[in-house]
Amino acid sequence: MWNWMRARVCGGGKDAGMSTSEYAMGTIAACAFAAVLYKVVTSGPVAAALQGVVEKALHAPF
Asked: Nearest Cα to 41, choosing from 32, 52, 49?
């Protein structure tokens, strides 16, 4: 009975975490996504649209 309970609590010896190379690939993918998102947000049309939204929100009547 205790072996069964230990297997349930400890996961039965299955690998539940990521290895170092998986962390590295995840970090690289996150950095690439952040770079693309930064380029999109700082582009001319998107920056102008965001500025328009902020200005409209600041000039809203109360």
From this structure: 49
